[in-house]
From TrEMBL:
Pfam families linked: MoaC
Keyword terms of this UniProt record: Lyase, Molybdenum cofactor biosynthesis
Active site: D128
Record-linked SUPFAM superfamilies: Molybdenum cofactor biosynthesis protein C, MoaC
Enzyme Commission number(s): 4.6.1.17
Function: Catalyzes the conversion of (8S)-3',8-cyclo-7,8-dihydroguanosine 5'-triphosphate to cyclic pyranopterin monophosphate (cPMP).
Name of this protein: Cyclic pyranopterin monophosphate synthase
HAMAP family: MoaC_B (MF_01224_B)
Annotated ranges, domain Molybdopterin cofactor biosynthesis C (MoaC): 14-150
Length: 159
């Protein structure tokens, strides 16, 4: 199967969705962020507090904003009217947090990139807000967990 973002001359193109039906589409992505024990000592069970303010709340807002700006960041993405975008952050263990981002739209194309961009934007914001404490923060395992709707059908990650 050829790449859909290349034309017959192997040049970049935006996928033509003109004849596709508008359907409900959703996607959930995640990013794991490995912080440090020093940073996690600032965690009160709900939030990380820093001199820059509430870290998780700021990262959640950044993730939502990133999802809304996906078509400006990723050259061949269609601009989509998001009907919902949610981002959550929770501790996985004593040094890692998981960011989950869900995007929903009623459109002609899917929202996987919006969910992935939301998770990435939130993870980068965590780094930015915590880097004064440590530069050893690692953003890892950014992936699509599931998607629904569209011609290709539903997808569920094996892990």
């Amino acid at each position: 199967m050829p790449f859909t973002h290349l034309d017959e001359n192997q040049q970049p193109q935006m996928v033509d969705v003109t004849d596709k039906a508008v359907t409900r589409r959703s996607a959930t992505a995640r990013a794991l962020v490995q912080l440090t024990p020093e940073i996690m000592r600032q965690f009160d069970g709900q939030e990380l507090q820093s001199k820059k303010g509430p870290v998780f709340h700021t990262a959640i807002l950044a993730g939502i904003q990133a999802a809304k700006k996906t078509s400006e960041l990723i050259p061949l993405c269609h601009p989509l009217p998001l009907t919902k975008c949610s981002v959550t952050i929770q501790a996985v263990d004593d040094v890692r947090v998981e960011i989950r981002a869900t995007a929903v739209t009623d459109a002609k194309t899917g929202v996987e990139m919006e969910a992935l961009t939301a998770a990435s934007g939130a993870a980068l914001t965590l780094y930015d807000m915590c880097k004064a404490l440590s530069k050893a923060i690692v953003i890892e395992d950014i992936r699509l967990l599931e998607k629904t709707g569209g011609k290709s059908g539903d997808y569920q990650s094996a892990t």
